Amino acid sequence: MTERFTGSFTQQEPIPDEAIEAALAVLRHGRLHRYNVADGELGETALLEQEFAAQTGAKYCLAVASGGYAMATAMRAVGVQPGDAVLTNAFTLAPVPGAIASVNARPVFVGVTEELTIDLDDLAAKADQAKVLLLSHMRGHLCDMDRLMEICDNAGITVIEDCAHTMGAAWRGVPSGRQGAFGCYSCQTYKHVNSGEGGLLITDDEELAAKAVMLSGSYMLYERHLAAPGPDVFERIKYHTPNVSGRMDNLRASILRPQLKDLDRQVARWNERYQALEAGLRDIPGLTVIERPAEESYVGSSIQFLLLDWTPRAVQEAIARCAARGVELKWFGADEPAGFTSRYDSWRYAQSERMPASDRVLTGIVDMRVPLTFSLDDCVVIARIIRAEVSAVHQSQL
Ligand SMILES: *Cc1c(COP(=O)(O)O)cnc(C)c1O
């Protein structure tokens, strides 16, 4: 009998009991707005910021409504103006060019390598085209951050890191999000902590931190923050920084705090699953495993492989055959955006030039979520199914 996988690729784990209790406490007292605090009360949102700053080693942290909002706020704070060019990855998800469009700026796409990271030669070649890089650590793959920062520092480019897939990851032990002017995180259900929607921003720059707080909609209540600079810094910027409301609320913050405390344990669980899948995908003819650099500590919340130089039809056939056996794979090479996948040329509001080397990679990228509800045995079964179906299609192509 043909083996089938019957688990769900979109089912998350339940919210931990401690987080449910904390949420109930907020619901019972009713003070959901972050600035609605009782006498002497610090508030869940301010505490979340304080804790995440400590966890990442950043001086300042701001909790906001979404990861996309965090990126747009970072760009506003560093001074991106309407019409400005912003460098960003060709291989990323729609909220990244979308954040650039939201500040009426213009994405300039930088290519992707076979390691699925930003093409640093292409970045160096385009470095004179923009003053800001919105760097997406797409699907958790960290590029050579030392070389990237060198290119950007030399060219006077401000780096904003999109860490939607790298919360808990590091490059040479430096947490992802700590090398750019800002690190932006998402707390949306499909990321590494789950509050439905939500985002976090970190920075060491006092003026950028103060601007971000004002932008997020603090009115003149910034003194209720525990991970923001002192009032003197706000004095310098408060009359010139608009309010673009996008705050986090105490209910979401309350359920995030216990999850962040548990992040390291969850990362280890993701990586066990990732490694079981990776081991099962090695040595399949026609399939390229993405090797992870020794400098990178990653979070295996998703896995990718390449079917490099396959025809689109053959890739689609392999994906359809896996789907028929319950294994949901996504393809970044399709002409039409589908689900969360899209290509840089699908974002037609932004101009782009063809990048043949990147197109070759994008056409081969196959992507799979790794929810923590999968057991290690599930991962072994999934890899076995992929092996059988990819091999069968590859064999028939020869
Ligand atoms: C999810 C995601 C975001 C934005 O997060 P939201 O909280 O959904 O706005 C940004 N970048 C990438 C790569 C993402 O996957």
UniProtKB/TrEMBL annotation:
InterPro entries: DegT/StrS_aminotransferase (IPR000653), PyrdxlP-dep_Trfase (IPR015424), PyrdxlP-dep_Trfase_major (IPR015421), PyrdxlP-dep_Trfase_small (IPR015422)
Superkingdom of origin: Bacteria
E.C. numbers: 2.6.1.109
Coiled-coil ranges (or none): none
Enzyme class: transferase
SUPFAM superfamilies: PLP-dependent transferases (SSF53383)
Alphabetical UniProt keywords: Aminotransferase, Pyridoxal phosphate, Transferase
Keyword check for Transferase: yes
One Pfam family per UniProt: DegT_DnrJ_EryC1
GO molecular function, one term: pyridoxal phosphate binding
An example Gene Ontology biological process: polysaccharide biosynthetic process
Family membership: Belongs to the DegT/DnrJ/EryC1 family.
Listed name of the protein: 8-amino-3,8-dideoxy-alpha-D-manno-octulosonate transaminase
Organism: Falsiruegeria mediterranea M17
Gene coding for it: kdnA_1
